[in-house]
């Protein structure tokens, strides 16, 4: 009976984790460049007794182990905005931005300029060019961003937006504000990343699928809770009957 309770609890913990992931995906359905995540779980079989003198051998008990999440790198839908400072990232590349904690990576191409003329994201982080931050004077006109990230105005080329890729993008960690961190050193994106000017990549989260997953998780959680409650009642009944016999 104890094993059944432990199995139920391990399932509930896994389902709660799955619920958190789904909730985060749903909260970012409208976040520019957001990449959804899905949970990974693994079955763990409890070792059985090694003695061979039992009339009936032990049965393995199956538990659930949380193995983290996987990042869905599928391309999100592209929406035309007409804003020359907006760029949609196509391919596997990430944009590099400077934060107080160092360089971080994003797919959010909703650029703008700050009062100092620096090219920044909508959250105010400086967009990094291949030669450092990109600055545009207020007097410059005709701004455009090419597919390779080249930023040009009427005064010529002002820089090139830095795009990078990772050997193992699944190792990227979410750090809030639609940013990713990585312990690995990125490499130049090259042909693996192109920019589409005047457009934004929207979230790749599919609300209908997430809602279906949410209903499945809630239904399963309720079922497991019911099983645990019945097991607890059964144990209480057994204790009372044993006390009556005594």
Automatic annotation (TrEMBL):
Keywords: Bacterial flagellum, Cell projection, Cilium, Flagellum
UniProt cross-references to Pfam families, sorted A to Z: Flg_bb_rod, Flg_bbr_C, LlgE_F_G_D1
Gene Ontology terms: cellular component: bacterial-type flagellum basal body, rod
Coarse class of the protein's main subcellular location: other
BP GO terms, sorted: bacterial-type flagellum-dependent swarming motility
Record's subcellular location: Bacterial flagellum basal body
Signal peptide limits: none
All copies of domain Flagellar hook protein FlgE/F/G-like D1, residue ranges: 88-152
Record-annotated Flagellar basal body rod protein N-terminal domain positions: 7-35
InterPro entries: Flag_bb_rod_N, Flagellar_FlgE/F/G, Flg_bb/hook_C_dom, FlgE/F/G-like, FlgF, LlgE_F_G-like_D1
Domain Flagellar basal-body/hook protein C-terminal: 197-240
Family: Belongs to the flagella basal body rod proteins family.
Subunit-structure text: The basal body constitutes a major portion of the flagellar organelle and consists of five rings (E,L,P,S, and M) mounted on a central rod. The rod consists of about 26 subunits of FlgG in the distal portion, and FlgB, FlgC and FlgF are thought to build up the proximal portion of the rod with about 6 subunits each.
Record-given protein name: Flagellar basal-body rod protein FlgF
Biological classification of the source: Bacteria, Pseudomonadati, Pseudomonadota, Alphaproteobacteria, Hyphomicrobiales
């Amino acid at each position: 009976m104890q094993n059944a309770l432990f199995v139920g609890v391990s399932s509930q913990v896994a389902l709660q984790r799955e619920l958190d992931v789904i909730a985060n995906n749903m909260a970012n359905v409208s976040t520019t460049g957001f990449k959804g995540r899905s949970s990974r779980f693994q079955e763990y079989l409890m070792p059985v007794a090694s003695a061979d003198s039992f009339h009936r051998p032990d049965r393995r008990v199956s538990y659930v182990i949380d193995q983290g999440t996987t990042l869905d790198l599928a391309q999100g839908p592209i929406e035309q905005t007409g804003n020359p400072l907006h760029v949609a990232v196509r391919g596997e590349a990430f944009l590099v931005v400077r934060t107080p904690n160092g360089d971080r990576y994003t797919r959010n191409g909703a650029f703008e300029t700050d009062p100092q003329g620096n090219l920044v994201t909508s959250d105010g982080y400086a967009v990094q060019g291949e030669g450092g931050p990109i600055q545009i004077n207020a007097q410059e006109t005709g701004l455009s961003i090419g597919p390779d990230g080249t930023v040009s105005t009427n005064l010529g080329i002002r820089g090139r937006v830095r795009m990078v890729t990772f050997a193992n993008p699944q190792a990227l960690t979410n750090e809030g504000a639609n940013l990713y961190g990585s312990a690995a050193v990125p490499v130049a994106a090259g042909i693996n990343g192109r920019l589409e000017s005047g457009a934004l990549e929207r979230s790749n989260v599919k609300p209908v699928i997430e809602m279906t997953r949410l209903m499945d998780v809630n239904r399963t959680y309720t079922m497991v809770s019911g099983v645990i409650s019945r097991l607890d009642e059964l144990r209480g009944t057994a204790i009372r009957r044993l006390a009556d016999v005594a």
